[in-house]
Write a structure and sequence with these properties.
The complex is a heterodimer of chains A (108) and B (232). Chain A is mainly alpha-helical. Chain A is 57% helix and 9% strand. Chain A contains five helices and three strands, in the order αβααββαα. A three-stranded antiparallel β-sheet of chain A has the order 1-3-2. Chain B is an alpha+beta fold and 232 residues long. In chain B, a hairpin with a 2-residue loop joins strand 2 and strand 3. In chain B, helix 3 packs antiparallel against helix 6 and helix 4 runs antiparallel to helix 5. Classes of the chains: A mainly alpha (108), B alpha+beta (232). Chains A and B meet through helix 2 and helix 3 of A and helix 2 and helix 3 of B.
């Protein structure tokens, strides 16, 4: 893991989360859209680019493709991907916790 | 049906293809500025043009992913990939987050910058050839080439400015890259025109204007890359 991996972009964060179970491209978009109540809708170019990069980083992997049945290519998160996700989660937790300081300030 | 449409702006091409679809014509193939169409139900498709220079990025994997998302890869010409989606009410946008939009614009800016420089070098060589030939017709090619080089340089600068506006706290300064490019190239063109007007009347002076004009244009093109792409 390198320094610039964290923080994750929102797109990467949600793709990793969606791939907690194997999914093909369209299912990823649907899952992310559902999780964010329609706030994050991934465009085809954005999704394709992110999947390529994550595959190169080995944060996600292709679940064996059955060429004969013309089944859609499915991806799932790897252990390295989970590690990055957990690190981001810890960062977000800290940020959320610290953000509560703002309340104290305004109540003074 | 074959139609001619020319622009360096692929967003505009996509808008034009949308209009054609509304009129009942679906794109079949694109070869440079020539587009062939087949009839379709009016408004059946929406279009986007992607930039994917090398085969791997627009290869089987790309096609598979796009098809999975309900996007048809119609054809490819040069680095441009023509995509369509059946109109379903949801907006058809290829790049939806800042990071991927910046990546994409960087590729587009780089492409037009390289093309502009190549074109410019060709024009510069043509100028010297035309100067020696002592005929009018080579200058027509010079003019066409120059217009193309300038248009591509400005397109690249536009993309660079768009990147700046997308970057953290991005503010386009008064002296945007596009503006700088336009000024330098404009001055360069002016010098070349002066050279042409002077012609044989004052050979030394006209050579000076030619050299200075080409130099300014060259600097304008090189400065394109000196934009604030400081990332990573």
């Amino acid at each position: 893991m390198t320094l610039k991996d964290i923080p994750l972009t929102e797109t990467v964060f949600y793709i990793l989360l969606a791939l907690r179970s194997p999914k093909h491209g369209y299912a990823i978009i649907q899952d992310v859209e559902k999780l964010t109540q329609g706030r994050v809708v991934l465009g085809p170019g954005t999704l394709y680019g992110a999947l390529k990069k994550l595959e190169q980083k080995k944060w996600i992997e292709v679940v064996s493709v059955d060429l004969e049945s013309r089944k859609k290519k499915e991806y799932r998160i790897t252990s390295a991907g989970r590690k990055a996700f957990e690190e981001e989660r810890a960062r977000l937790r800290e940020a959320l916790h610290n953000s509560e300081l703002m309340e104290q300030q305004t109540h003074d | 049906m074959i139609k001619f449409y020319f622009t360096y702006n692929k967003e505009r091409t996509a808008e034009w293809l949308d209009t054609m679809s509304r009129e009942g014509y679906a794109l079949k193939k694109a070869v440079g500025p020539f587009f062939s169409f087949v009839p379709c139900n009016p408004g059946e498709y929406e279009y986007q043009v992607d930039y994917a220079p090398l085969p791997p990025s627009a290869g089987r994997d790309y096609k598979e992913t796009m098809e999975d998302l309900g996007v048809d890869v119609i054809c490819k010409f040069g680095p441009w990939v023509y995509l369509r989606k059946e109109k379903d009410g949801a907006p058809f946008e290829l790049y939806t987050d800042r990071e991927s939009r910046i990546d994409h614009l960087e590729n587009v800016a780089k492409f037009f910058k390289i093309m502009a420089i190549v074109e410019f070098v060709c024009v510069a060589m043509l100028v010297f050839a035309a100067d020696r030939l002592n005929a009018t017709w080579p200058w027509i090619f010079v003019a066409i080439g120059l217009v193309a080089a300038i248009a591509m340089a400005i397109r690249s600068a536009q993309a660079s400015d768009e990147i700046t506006s997308l970057q953290d706290f991005g503010v386009i300064s008064k002296w945007s890259i596009r503006k700088r490019t336009k000024i330098l190239i404009g001055m360069g063109s002016l010098f070349v025109v002066i050279k042409l007007l002077l012609g044989d009347v004052a050979p030394l002076l006209s050579d000076f204007f030619l050299g200075a004009g080409l130099g300014l244009m060259g600097i304008g093109l090189i400065f394109l890359g000196a934009g604030n792409h400081a990332r990573d």
